[in-house]
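Section 4.2 – Deliverable D4.2 (structural model, holo form)

The reporting period included a commitment to supply a predicted holo structure for the target in complex with zinc ion. Inputs used:
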Amino acid sequence: MQPKTMTHAIRSQALNFIADPFIVGSDAAYEYISDALIVIENGKIKSFGSYDQIKPTLSDGVEIKTYKDALVLPGFIDTHIHYPQTQIIGAFGKQLIDWLNNYTFIAEQQFKNFDYAKTVANFFLDQCIKAGTTTVMSYCTVHPESVDAFFEAATEKKMRVIAGKVLMDRNAPGDLLDQSVKVGYDQSKALINKWHGKGRLSYAITPRFAPTSSHEQLESTGALWKEHPGTYMQSHVSENLGEIDWVKELFPNQKDYLDVYDHYGLLGNRAVYGHGVHLNEREWQRMYESGSSIAHCPTSNEFLGSGLFNFELAKKSGRHVKVGLATDIGAGTSFSQLQSMNESYKIAQLGGFALSSIHAFYLATKGAAESLDLQDKIGSIKAGMEADLLVLDLKSTASIDFRMGHCKNIEEALFIQMIMGDDRATRAVYVEGRLAFEKTNS
Ligand code: GUN
Ligand code: ZN
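Output (structure tokens):
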């Protein structure tokens, strides 16, 4: 028989965000505790503070696991990813539309087979955990089986995830299209009823992007979202210049790309749009007013030559748009959000914006949670939050170890990790308080 209350604790350095560094500046945005104790009870954080302060409150016999040369963070959150593209990471050639036609739309056809989808979903989620990512917002494919497989795999791993069936009814191979607008609507509705709010799962209504949905499908998608408050909306916007021209041709009556989604009622809190590389000022203003979020996908934008995300515009004073960091696997090239931060820093540099390590880690933790409206559940180390935690090995390679010997403070330590680190820096991962991954010393 298991005891009713399961309590354990982690002792290490810890870093947690308390405010948005894009608003308050880096220094006021975080708390760093050089000797911290995090107490976990029944999957949630019970208390967090300095070891000296928290230890006397612990009952006798509570196990304390100590991690040296490590830093505990909230588990990373990936706000835009495609699990069915795991097998096409690093597929060579050309830009978005060719890449979709030559690789993506071929790979995704296999996901009508539940067993295949489940195998990929398991592998994918294991890779996420190994990279320190405890929550993802993922696309599935057009096939309901791909959604069942993903949510089943996430349930078995006890992960908080958001996902949904892709909706598309034009401009893709026949096997990837909804048989009709009504079939796409009905299948999505059935999946919402089956999965949304079950355990740690949330459903995202998922029109792939404007070019692959008819006007009628976008209309029915808006209606479906309205009928199911609390569900999410996810799509792509303004990723690539050729794509933007195409949207102009397909929707000549709309002001710009974002206006297409606005027209069909697809903006609002819990609407998460991938990329937003080329949004204009009017579109940024609408993103802000509507409470919609952008998933910033740096490795993908570089890989597909899409362009440079503009932090100055996204975080313009007085109308900060919610932004979460994302890998966008399989156009993205690494499961590691440390690598997303690395590339995001370089993109910001090329645009004249100095992205600090505090900005970058915020975008993958509390900032990402806010962009998914999950800030009350994940993304921070605080009493009452779900205990999804990443223990980062601060000396994961010989060169990082050497470099850390010349490091002045925590901000610099984080910067070294995000520029030089990857999934080898994952020492341990806790999902809902349970140890889900631990690095072996091989
Ligand atoms: N736009 C529409 N579909 C996709 C996709 O699968 N990946 C990326 N990067 N952009 C898209
Ligand atoms: Zn995408």
